[in-house]
Specification:
Blueprint (H helix, E strand, L loop, with lengths): L5 E8 L2 H12 L2 E6 L5 E7 L2 E8 L11 E7 L3 H10 L3 E2 L4 E3 L3 E7 L5 E7 L2
Parallel strand pairs: 1-4, 5-9
Antiparallel strand pairs: 1-5, 2-3, 3-4, 6-8, 7-8, 8-9
Length: about 120
C-alpha cells in the first residue's frame, strides 16, 4: 500500500453484462465473479491473470440516484482518521465506513467540489 496513491478502480453500472462484453471485446479483459455479502456478484476485471479493476452492479433501488461512472479508490494509511479530517475539511461521508474481508476498510466520500471518491486502507 502506498498512502495517497490510486489503488483501485471500479465501474458502477446498471448493465454489467454489456460492460463485461464491451471491455472484453475492446481491451481483452476476462472476468472472475466474487460473491458479495448479502447477495450479488462483484466482477474482477482480469488481464494476464492480474486483477486490474472491478465492476459493481448499481441496478438496485439503493443506487437509484447514483450515476453510472468509474469510481477511483485512493489508498490511505488509516481510513477512519483520514475521513475525520476529510469531513472537517468539507467532505461528506456517503455511507458508513465498511470492511470487505481480505480487501480492506473502505469509505465512500463526496469531496467538497462534489466529486465522488473512495478511500481504502487495504488489508494486510
Amino acid at each position: 500500500m502506498a498512502h495517497g496513491q490510486f489503488h483501485w478502480n471500479e465501474l458502477m453500472t446498471r448493465n454489467v453484462e454489456g460492460a463485461k462484453k464491451f471491455y472484453a471485446d475492446t481491451l481483452g479483459w476476462s472476468f472472475d465473479g466474487v460473491p458479495m455479502p448479502g447477495g450479488g456478484t462483484y466482477w474482477l476485471a482480469m488481464i494476464g491473470g492480474e486483477a486490474v479493476g472491478g465492476i459493481f452492479d448499481i441496478s438496485g433501488a439503493d443506487f437509484k440516484d447514483v450515476p453510472e461512472s468509474w469510481m477511483a479508490y485512493i489508498a490511505v494509511d488509516d481510513v477512519d482518521a483520514r475521513v475525520k479530517k476529510a469531513v472537517a475539511a468539507g467532505a461528506k461521508l456517503m455511507k458508513p465506513i465498511f470492511d470487505v474481508p481480505g480487501v480492506g476498510r473502505i469509505a465512500i466520500l463526496m469531496e467538497p467540489g462534489g466529486a465522488g471518491i473512495g478511500w481504502i486502507t487495504p488489508a494486510s
